[in-house]
Fold Molybdopterin-dependent oxidoreductase.
Amino acid sequence: MRGESVPDASRGREGTSARTGRLAAWLREGPAGPFRPEFWRSPLRGPWLTSVLGLVLLAGITVVVITGLLSYAAYEPRLPGNDMTPGKGLLGFYLFDWPTDPVWMYRVTQGAHVIGGLTLVPILLAKLWSVIPKLFSWPPARSVAQAVERASLLLLVGGAVFQFATGILNVQLFYVFPFSFYPAHFYGAWIFLAAFVVHVAIKLPRVIDTLRTQGLRDHLRTSLADTRPEPPDPDGLVATDPAPATMSRRGLLAFAGGGSLIMFGLSAGQCLDGPLRRTALLAPHGRDYGTGPNDFQVNKTAAGLGVTPARTGESWRLTLIGPHRLELSRADLLAMPLHTYALPIACVEGWSTQQTWTGVRLADLARLAGIRTGSTGVTARSLQRWGYFGQASLRAAQVADPRSLLALRVNGADLSLDHGYPARVIVPNAPGVHNTKWVRELDFTQERS
């Protein structure tokens, strides 16, 4: 019929073929942008730079992981009320009775955990920058071995970002999590550790071979004018179309290392007493808290936890629970034999300080309650109305240590309300949250769970 068009079958076949070809090319080459090798143009990326940053992180993260596991052990999660991660199961296989000696152990390990983590942030960011093309490589996997490697890489990167981000937010007291920090950080640590071990097992031989063949000094001596891309590598880190260098590799390492030194300098003071405490600008508890004997870090304020002067005044009583149950006023406690020790107090947030505490030995209070020294631990309960750690349990050995006190004074003066007046627990080498403030009850009927 005139005026009507007849479909051209060959043209339809050509259109289908073109679409099929474009799809095949897309599947082969990947989406545009970061999935294409030519997108990444820095001449600095390559196996050598990644290997150097990786070795630094290997040493640093190992320290952070070990001290983090020690921190969990220090919380004595096998005791009643102490476990923030009750579903840990086999992940608690390594737990041991946390010692009271040396008294500075938790101060050092937790300080190294937090300050070490903060110090590693610039190195971690530099390492992520150096391997970011790997996260976008196409196709996602060419073999089972590569699929395992990429899965471990994604878990490693995701785990590192999660652990560092949540840890830093917690240290800075930004409790913005839609979940409980403690179990999330604990389980996240084990996921990250598993990916970290797999990644190290796969990459360490290649790192050693790269540094052995390329050396260390040559790259560190290379100026900006002489900076060239590394030889092509099978991992796709070296740019296929490199741009001119705007920084040498030694300059990049100096930039990342300088950032780490700044992070260290702005946080290390939180573990030091004296004028250097004022340098801890990254620590919310690192600076001045007024004048006098009570001028040291306050983790939880009385007002913030519902502890009022009315509840800590003349009507306050300490209840001892054991075979004998009795109540003691602050005057009763002051009339007992008092002992004075210089002991550090250290928090999970990384800060620590050593102060001189005066009070009644926990062992003496246990005997008043009818408990034989060293036969049982204690659960200390606080006047606080809300928040975490309203109670904490201590082992029998911690109670028996003669330096373990129900402190009434610090540095020769009465405790301030924010520091736990009228009485607080001080135990050598225990996490700060186990040194319960505003104690209202000492229960010596504690049993190991």
The chain has two domains: 33-265, 303-443.
